[in-house]
């Protein structure tokens, strides 16, 4: 896992709990997913999941725990590996001023 020089945790997380996200690239087991061989395909490009946890890695980057319902896997992903699958509507409609 290669991190950029940016210290991402100086800013708020890009995704919130419950956000529906799409994987941007193939996610393979790097040895941190129990019960599966290293290199096992955990999520493929385009798979949809939901953010169920937000942690940090090396005090530099956010790690988003993404639950993929089709496989029932919860996989840690970096921001660069995810896109928001759909925009969230505002909780309270605001009139146009």
Automatic annotation (TrEMBL):
It holds the Pfam family NifZ. InterPro entries: Nitrogenase_MoFe_mat_NifZ. One of its GO terms (biological process) is nitrogen fixation. This is Nitrogen fixation protein NifZ. Keywords: Nitrogen fixation. It comes from Adonisia turfae CCMR0081. Belongs to the NifZ family.
């Amino acid at each position: 896992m290669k991190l950029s020089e940016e210290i991402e945790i100086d800013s708020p997380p890009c995704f919130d709990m419950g956000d529906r996200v799409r994987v941007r690239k193939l996610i393979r087991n790097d040895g941190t997913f129990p019960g599966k061989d290293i290199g096992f395909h955990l999520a493929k490009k385009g798979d949809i999941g939901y953010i169920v946890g937000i942690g940090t890695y090396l005090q530099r980057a956010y790690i988003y725990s993404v639950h993929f319902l089709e496989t029932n896997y919860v996989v840690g992903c970096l921001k660069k590996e995810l896109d928001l699958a759909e925009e969230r509507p505002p909780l309270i409609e605001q009139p146009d001023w």
